């Protein structure tokens, strides 16, 4: 769901991923890309694509960070329980 949102409205996907400052800068980049798409300039599509790629990376990194946090919490819980496996 978040990947679809990152494709359609990248700043909103970044905001929902918990990165409000990145969402503001992505919104500026996304809006600039849309304006440049309307005008007959070549970099409009590239600018728009960069904002979408940025949103995909933020959404993917958030999922990876949640997985990493869960693994660390499990390891710390095992360590506190006295069952350190090496």
What does this structure look like?
The structure is a single chain. With 86 residues, this protein is mostly helical. The chain contains 4 helices and no strands. α1 packs antiparallel against α4. The longest helix has 38 residues. The protein is rod-shaped, with a radius of gyration of 19 Å. The model has no long low-confidence stretch (mean pLDDT 86).
Q: What structural class results from the helix and strand content?
A: mainly alpha
Shape: rod-shaped
Averaged pLDDT, please?
86
The CA-CA distance between the termini, in Å, is: 39 Å
Percentage of residues in strands: under 5%
Please give the share of residues in helix. over 70%
Number of domains: 1
User: Could you state the order of secondary-structure elements as H and E?
Assistant: HHHH
Radius of gyration in whole Å, from Cα?
Answer: 19 Å
Per DSSP E runs of 2 or more residues, the count of β-strands stands at 0
Largest sheet: none
Residue runs with pLDDT of under 50 for 5 or more positions: none
Number of helices: 4
In oligomeric terms, what are we looking at? single chain
């Amino acid at each position: 769901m978040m990947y679809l949102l990152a494709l359609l409205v990248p700043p909103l996907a970044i905001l929902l991923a918990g990165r409000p400052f990145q969402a503001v800068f992505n919104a500026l980049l996304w809006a600039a890309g849309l304006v440049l798409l309307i005008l007959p300039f070549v970099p409009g599509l590239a600018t728009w694509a960069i904002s979408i790629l940025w949103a995909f990376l933020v959404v993917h990194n958030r999922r990876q960070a949640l997985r990493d946090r869960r693994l660390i919490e499990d390891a710390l819980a095992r360590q506190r329980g006295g069952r350190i496996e090496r």
